Structure formats: C-alpha cells, structure tokens
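Sat 14:20. Reprocessing the chain from the morning session after the first attempt stalled halfway. Input below, unchanged.
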Amino acid sequence: MSMHMKVESMLGYHTFEVPTAIKHGIGAIQYLGEEVKNLGASKVMLVTDPGIYNAGVTKPVEESLKAAGVDVAVFNRVEPNPPTRLIGEGSTFYKENGCDGLVAVGGGSSMDTAKAVGVEVSHEGTVLDYEAAEGKKPLENRIPPLATIPTTAGTGSEVTQWAVITDEKREYKFNTGGPLIAAHLTIIDPKLHVSMPPHVTAMTGIDAIAHAVECYTMKYAQPVTDAVALLAIEYAATYIRRAFADGEDLEARYGMSQSAMLAGLSYGSESAGAAHAMSQSLGGIVPVAHGQCVAAMMGPVMEFNWKGAPGRFARIAQAFGINTADLSTEEAAKAAVDYMYNLVEELEVPTLEEQGVDPTQVERWSKAAMDDPQTIGNPRDLTVSDYEWIYKRCFNQVEKTI
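Finished this time. Tokens:
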C-alpha cells in the first residue's frame, strides 16, 4: 500500500452504516416471532449448529416463532469455519422448503452461514462470485429478512456487514459483504448465553476485545467506530472474568453481549488488522476455532503494533481499567500489551501449538497472512518477516520486547 493510499485511508471518505435494528434485554427472545412477522416473513429457515440444537438452546426461539404463526424449517448442519459447500446445501434447503426469511441462532458460524445463504438465494451464481475482492461482483440485492440471535458474546456477526466463508479448494477464508448482507434485526438475550462453557466464554470474549482493539487502532478508524470500540473494551474488561467464572451471572452475560455487539459495530465497513489477517488466513488452512486462535495471537500482535499508535494503545489501557495517570504514553501503551498477555493466561486460553498449529510452518502462515486483505488496516506497516516475528512470539521462539 503506497504512502498516498495510506494518507487517503486515514483522511479520506469514511462511511458508517447500521442497517440492523438492535433489540436486547433479559428474556427478549419472546418478542422474536412478532418481530419476524413484521419483517414480512411467514416461513423461516432456522440456521444453527447441531450442538446448540441438541442442547435445546433453539427451543425458545422456535416457540416464539410458532406462537406468532411463523413456520419454521430447521437447518442444523452448521460447521465451524463454514465452507462454500455448506452454503450451497443451505440455499437448496431454503428453496426446497419455500422459505421467505432466515433466523440464525448460535455463534459467528451460524450467523455467517445464514448471511451467505441469503446472498445465494437473492443472487445468480454462488457466494464465491461475490467475494470481496478485485474483479468480483458487488452484491446487488438485499438478502431476505434475517434475524440474528447470538448465543455467544464474541464475533459480533449479529451486526456486522460481513460473512466469513471458507473456500476449501483454495484453503482460503474469504469475506463477502456490505450493507446488503447485514441482518435486518438482532435480538440479544443474555439468557441464551448461560449455556456457554468457560472456554467458549473466554475465547469469544477475547475475540470481541480483539475486534475493538484492532478497530480502534486500525488505519480506517473514525469517531463512531472509536466510540463503540472503547466502550466494548471497557465492558469486556469489567465483565469477562465474571462471565468466565460464573456462567449464570446474568449481569456479566449482559455486559459481555453488549461488548460483543459494540465491537461488531466497530468493524464498520472496513478492514481490521494483523490479528484478524493471521487468524482468518490460518483458519482457511488449519481447522482452528477463530476466537481461540485470535485470543492466542492478541498479545504478540499488540506487542508488535503499539509503536504504530502509542496514544491509542495508552487509551486502550485506560479502557482496560489501568490507572495511567502517572504513566507516560509509552508506559501506558506497554501496560495495555501486558494486560492482554495476562488476560489470555487468566482465562486459560490454549497456545497456538496446543490448538494444533505447527510451529515449524511459520513461513507458510506468514505468507498467507500477508496476502489477507485485512493486513492493510494494521497500524504498523507489515512485511512477511514481521508476520514471522509475530508468529514466533506466539510460539515463544523469540524474546518479548517490552
């Protein structure tokens, strides 16, 4: 990216759009049926994964829809890192069942699957034709009415304008999106979050912090994304340990659900940075859980990046609850980095190696990250050897620098 492009990205033409109505509250799921009916849907495809479905988490969702007279066709085949073939299966299911709306229940994978199915049923071709890349077609039509019901507090996919889909042939995760793909409505009910086990609470919660930190420090930051990112960090720092330690703590669950949603809004419509470039490119090659992967990378990424935006990293330290009054900007920025390392340890996040990532393939992972479109948003310039350093820090192959 040239210097001219960089300055343009910082000072240029910004946009912030929220096509999604955001509704929330303890027990809010009871209102879903009426809300979906108001969107004009009479038969919805309920998109979820087998674990959520078998645990009975979708029951109150189905009850609310049926009580409002909305028919439900259950598609409970969602896989982590949803591949293009799953989207094809979903689109066929949608058409065969005569659906006219979508309801996604679960984590990012379920919501991304529903968005991508929405793209396929409202456009010619497959979701691959609408990859956010040069030479590909932009979306032309609004997807059918979509309601997102997050059961984790992490990806923020309930309000983002992106779906992340895996192309298994290329071993590549790609984005498709824009305002036309966003959910029409999200209902955030912390009661649906109490079934999350501690390790899922940890990895999805740190994913939310990662969105906020990356979007607050990215080259495309703007006042609206700054505002939601900082509050997302503050909420997460306040509530993440409580939610991890006591799954039934509804106040903590509520706080974390708001943190994830605000962090999702902080994505705006732009790129994030190195941690998401790394986790997205790696996730296309190795079957890692996105949140856990990002969580393991955040300390090293922040350690590399703080020099690119010291004032912003110092402000993140404040949002984390660190008393920065007597610290210099540089000291406060470094304190934010240390906070992240400590948080990942406190919440028992497994290392990349423990997640099954081969430490001998650093060169391969680094090249893949360099090619990811999110690299350009990073606050500090990146080369393949910089990515190699970050990966080596993840594997403890190089010394900590702060």
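Strands lie at 21-24, 43-47, 71-75, 101-106, 146-150, 162-167, 172-177, 185-188.
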